[in-house]
């Protein structure tokens, strides 16, 4: 991603700052709305460089974006045009795109991949409810917003199509759509195909790339890719992955579309289990119903049936537990006074003068910074090196947290807090202090939660010393990752 502090383009009503990227006929810029001061991304399409087919794609993309509003789909704020450009104003995502994230991390931990996949499947489910197939799913078209949690946003609908009875006729003479490395074999081979299965192959390639840090078929040319597909080249899957993830990869990356998993089957796959994940009133009701069935079977001495039903109930309840951890909702139950004591216990070794900082941060109800606010705080912190460095360390702690590396995360959080709390104590009233207070409070909560989790895990290890099966360190790490996968 290139940065340009002096972009030549001018957009009425916006202050253009950095160039985020450039395509064949469009450039994307970071900008600020002059009225609201809100961060946005402005896609500037040069009408002089656009062909007839590309113009149709732009019109279709705007038509589709106008319909969409979902947490895991990039939102269009506005669009307009002048003599030279068409402008599409989109929400700004401060974490770059998934391809950058993969490049940075190389291989993403499985529990993080699971979280990402659930978000993508929820986004695709929403698109299908609007009768939309994306047709160009790839990491470059999946944006990341870093706020209180990492949120993926499906973007770039220039190649998308509406699902309807004449869709096969619409795509018959168009040729392959999408990027070859992520294109389903039947599309690449220009065969007749089922449009509902195309995004699923692309999703499989994305999951594979996240887990392995490379493409499943890393041929350098389209001809080489076509040849590998023609030969049905076996796709090597890391044997260390869980059974569920390996099974899903095989079902998504089926060369034969008839053997590929359907979207309805995907929703119920053990790696996704979308029926369990949204913490809604319905899933809570299902959890209670399943728990009652389990108790009934237990009472009737049907222990095998009771065990299965308890597991079923727990699957419904996990999202509520992780959501509470992520939201640090214990403040509502224990009150602010208990909360301040907890934070003071954690941070006392870090800095002596914590009473004031803890009261400043602790008297607030739990509020998390949005992605836009995180970007603003980082910008405002640049003139103060200790604040900027502390924030940088804190964000790296969140990444360790995301990866399930809790001991590394707690060390980074402690270092970040040791830098930021003295700065916060001296910071004058104003917007920067307000944002920093919220961020410090959030990291205090997260660090305390990690500390509690690690302590509980250590105690469990001691209790399990004499049990017939003691979990391996890898099992423990995965269990902890599952418990905390939504904390960020």
Provide a count of the helices.
18
Helix content: 40-55%
Q: What structural class results from the helix and strand content?
A: alpha+beta
Q: Can you tell me the CATH class of the largest domain?
A: Mainly Alpha
The CATH topology of the largest domain corresponds to Transferase(Phosphotransferase), domain 1
> How would you characterize the largest beta sheet?
5 strands, antiparallel
Strand ordering within the main sheet: 1-2-3-5-4
GO biological process, one term: response to starvation
Catalytic activity: L-seryl-[protein] + ATP = O-phospho-L-seryl-[protein] + ADP + H(+); L-threonyl-[protein] + ATP = O-phospho-L-threonyl-[protein] + ADP + H(+)
Binding site for ATP: 43
Subcellular location: Cytoplasm
Keywords:
488 residues, alpha+beta, Phosphorylase Kinase, domain 1, Transferase(Phosphotransferase), domain 1, 5-stranded antiparallel beta sheet, two-stranded antiparallel sheet, 9 strands, globular, disordered C terminus
Q: Explain this structure to me?
A:
This protein has 488 residues and is of the alpha+beta class. Helices cover 53% and strands 11% of the residues. It has helices spanning 52-65, 98-105, 110-129, 167-172, 185-188, 198-212, 222-230, 243-252, 263-268, 281-299, 303-327, 330-347, 355-362, 371-381, 385-402, 406-426, 431-463, 473-484, and strands at residues 14-22, 26-33, 39-46, 76-81, 85-91, 132-133, 142-146, 150-154, 161-162. The strands form three sheets. The chain has a five-stranded antiparallel β-sheet with strand order 1-2-3-5-4, with no helix packed on it. The longest helix has 33 residues, at 431-463. Residues 14-272 form the Protein kinase domain. Its EC number is 2.7.11.1. Its main location: cytoplasm.
